[in-house]
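Re-running (diamondback moth) hypothetical protein to confirm reproducibility after the cluster update. Everything else is unchanged from the original entry.
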Amino acid sequence: MRPVLLAQLNLPMEPDRVPDYGELVVTGYGAVTTGQIRHGVNQELRRMMAQEVDKAECRQLYGGDYQLQHDHMCLKSVVKGIALCAGDIGDPAVHFSGGSKGGELYGIALFSGTEECAYKSKPGVFAKVSYSRKWINSVINDSSGTAKDSSES
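Result of re-run:
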């Protein structure tokens, strides 16, 4: 088993787009129906094959319900009736190119919308990992365990 790679921010190239080839997979333990809370040992890891939704289209779909930021991306299932639901916040969106067994982490689920899970017409909103690479790398590289609490000054 290998750790997942983290997406790079490739400015001035378009950093917002997941590659058009391969598969984009979201996995999580969230609910499968609205109002259901899944907990305990009977949780089942589920996956959703996803595709990216153009940011302009996503903004139009959400209207005033959610304010998309520059470091957000929208993903929806390629299968109708499958969507993010309660408990899926924090789920990873990993792109697999098919060339290797490892994947590349593109996003972390932030918001699943305001509609019932199975009837969703709005995509899920994800934080783009590439925009947080500097912070992620600093946390990963602080393996000395000497990170100071800001209250220790």
